[in-house]
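Listing S7. Sequence submitted for prediction.
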Amino acid sequence: MATRSEQSPNDGGQSDIHPANDLNELTGKHWIRFTKSWFVCDSPRYHRNKDTELHPARYPEELVAEFVNFFTKPDQWILDPFCGSGATLIACLEEGRKAIGVELSPKYVQVTQQRLQRLDALGNVQVLAGDARRLTDPALWQDCLACSDGELPQFDFIITSPPYWNMLHKSRGGVESTHKQRASQGLDTHYSESEDDLGNIEDYDEFIEALGAVFDQCQRLLKPDKYMVVVAQNLRVADGYVVPLAWDLQKRLSRTFNFQGERIWCQNTKQLGIWGYPKIFVPNYHHHYCLIFRNDKGCSRPS
């Protein structure tokens, strides 16, 4: 997908953007490329950004750029309520957008701040130390760049990847999994030990409802008719069954938002594990669901 810098008058430039397009700065040719329901994204930055490898479940800046360039225009504000090591903020900065990230872990707040300081990003992007479960608490936004007059901020787009339940606490199979490799290298295998960390909730139904409550609050921060993308994945638990996390999350969030569909993010370079051999089929999950929602208050949603 082309970014602003990749478009030119000879390749469907600004003059070819439809005058009724108030969502983005893409031509019809670039618009239709994005609507394909799957895409491959393997970040080349993993080995350049050693500090972000501390984070056990980061997503690529390139993935964020895909969605930011479709769902926003330059200088618009974007929110990531589960900021992690700052991939959303870095991508927004590179694509000429403004962004706020909220992160519970002091460690990853510091990692993100250090990344932003190296890029001299003050004034355009910001990470706030806070709990995503309290997004509508005015105290969280006291020093926010996107706020004015003491009101809650209003964003043009939300994109995030929340915890995949307690998946990061589990090591699967008897092979040298990524989980075991990270543990042997002294890297984090899960987010934190905090009781406020949603990834530490043991009961699945409680987790889905707690996460849904976070996104209910996001609806108050997202402008009408604007979009939210939530990256999630179905997962196999140690007991041998698959938890349809992405689908359950879609159903829960559809109480508040209008579900618009999904794009499937595929990973080609992720390590394969021979999990069930030689007796049982166990898939290698190398794809995630990028669930796309719209803040359409007037839409009719299934009960």
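Caption to Listing S7: primary sequence and predicted structure tokens for the chain studied. The first helix runs from residue 28 to 34. DSSP finds seven helices and ten strands in the chain.
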